[in-house]
Amino acid sequence: MAGLSSLYKQHHARRNEQQVIKHLVKDIINVSTAEIISETKKAPVTEAGELEQGLPEMSSEFPLTSLSLNKIKLGARGMKAVADFLVDNPSLRSLHLNGNSLTSTGILPLWQGLLSGRNNNLKQLFLAKNQFGDQGIAHLHAMKCKTSGLNELNLNDNGITEKGGNELLNFVRDNEDVKKVRLSRGNRIKHKTLKGIRKIVAQRLQR
Fold this sequence. Notes:
disordered N terminus, alpha/beta, GTPase activator activity, 7 helices, single chain, Leucine-rich repeat, LRR (right-handed beta-alpha superhelix), repeat, leucine-rich repeat, five-stranded parallel beta sheet
């Protein structure tokens, strides 16, 4: 039975690795599939879904602009790898981390990475279907000077309440580039606050 258990774990780890490869390949422009698969093998995923050795390094000749790591059960080490990758790859413009069950603690490495100020090119941040709630976005407003280019944010299905909604309202108000925010689904923010955010965004789109 021990042999079967070991084989199952190995198979599960390989499946998770293939998921990472699939998502990496999907959003990479001008980089061949063979190169990405070769590089990703250096960053195996455990049966718990955590990246063990970080994400592959991209050459300056073919900079990575979009990274999708949806629904792969990123753990603490996985998020640390993502944060390090974000800092080391300033060309990244779009980051997808939907459906990873990230808590307020789990999301912290991402905020710390963004607060480093070494990636000012990030335009889109997708964090739907996680679990970080109000506490997970407590540092969002502090990022206003560090992510001046961010223009799209997806925070649906995160259990955010009115407290977090007001933080988001301030963040959107103080960041002129924000033109799209999704947070009406799966959160508990008052209609008045949601309306305030939508009004700010709508006015910017009309300019």
